[in-house]
Amino acid sequence: MATEILVPTLGESVSTATVARWLKKAGEAVKADEPLVELETDKVTVEVNAPAAGVIESIAADEGAEVEPGAVLGSIAAGGAAAAPARPQPQTSEPAPAPAAAAQPKVEPPRQPQGPVAVPGAAGHAPLPAAAKLMAERGVGAEQIGEGSAKDGRIAKGDVLDFLSRPAAAPAAAAAKPATQRALDEGEERVKMTRLRVTIARRLKEAQNTAAMLTTFNEVDMGAAMALRSEYRDVFEKRHGVRLGFMSFFVKACVAALKEFPAVNAEIEGDQVIYKHFVHMGIAVGGPNGLVVPVLRNADRMGFAEIEKTIGNFGKRARDGQLKLEELAGGSFTITNGGIYGSLMSTPILNPPQSGILGMHKIQERPMAIGGKVEIRPMMYIALSYDHRIVDGKEAVSFLVRVKESVEDPRRLMLDI
């Protein structure tokens, strides 16, 4: 009896995935829970493990195919024997042609009209099933979208959503886009964007198009935090098994400021504001395929050690591509630290639908006027980008001042003042 290999639940707001890579071939023996295939979603790469031990009997979804939760990827035959390996078939909106003699030309079956999806001359951009359905519903033609991000340039559902999210003037511009790509010059290389990178690009552009985004700046004297960290570094690591870094100071400082200025922790939905009586803190982390933002859930209930352990774990698993979808959803505020790459100052971009993001930067010694004297102090520029539709300038500046005060005097965090 064969066991089906199914697409797992993909997580909040993720309805489709692309088959990125099969790790096993039809006819190969596998163990239970052994990784079989990688699926690429808009947010992260997901491994699907073998539901049982046996032999790969068939592969139903080829690499590049778009699949939905619950769809059959293939099957595993119990025991050591399997049927003849099935040739992988790409998922298409058309039935597979019947076998024909080698000398006979391939005869295409008659196609049924599909409204605007069936576009003459756009065969190279044939949409995947989920994309074709959405295009028919929205009256979008393949020539408007152009080359897709799926295998062989096919149009995926994410490409359609990306097209629909563009400003109203986009359809005319897309229609005018030449069907052929320009010839590459010497030394150039064309590489298709990953699904994650396409999604990052789309979401960042959505943030610019939707939010009334502003950025306010301040600077923090890191002397007190550095002294506290140096004094208790060894005992902290011995007690908790993790190093004391600066991220926990800023997480705690932001939690305190968000409680005082709740609009920065809220979001807009239509003509309503949703206030959140919790802090789910997103921490921007660089992964192999781009930036991801895992979430510290209920960061307002965490201590320094738990924050440091969780962030360290996020960083390691982001580099290994092992973050789970549910860990990337539901954030209410985000912190990004460009300082680890040497950035001295930047304007971070919002992570929709959030209304605020804090940018940390490099600690650099600078001459500062203190008490009428010039002293060399370890300083960090910090930036708050915020949605001016919901956060007033006074709130944004006061929020950043509160973060500054908390980090410059960490005792405030201990006493909750």
For this structure, what is the CATH homologous superfamily of the domain at 213-415? Chloramphenicol acetyltransferase-like domain
Strand content: 15-25%
Q: What Rg do the Cα atoms give?
A: 26 Å
Report the total helices.
10
Kindly state the percentage of residues in helix: 25-40%
**CATH class category name of the domain at 213-415:** Alpha Beta
Q: How would you classify the helix and strand content by structural class?
A: alpha+beta
State the CATH topology of the domain at 213-415: Chloramphenicol Acetyltransferase
Mind telling me which CATH architecture of the domain at 213-415 this is?
2-Layer Sandwich
Distance between the termini: 65 Å
Largest sheet: 7 strands, mixed
Give the topology string: H per helix, E per strand: EEEEEEEEHHHHHEHHEEEEEEHEEEEHH
Unreliable stretches = 81-123, 169-178
Arithmetic mean pLDDT: 82
Q: In one word, what is the shape?
A: globular
DSSP E strands, number: 19
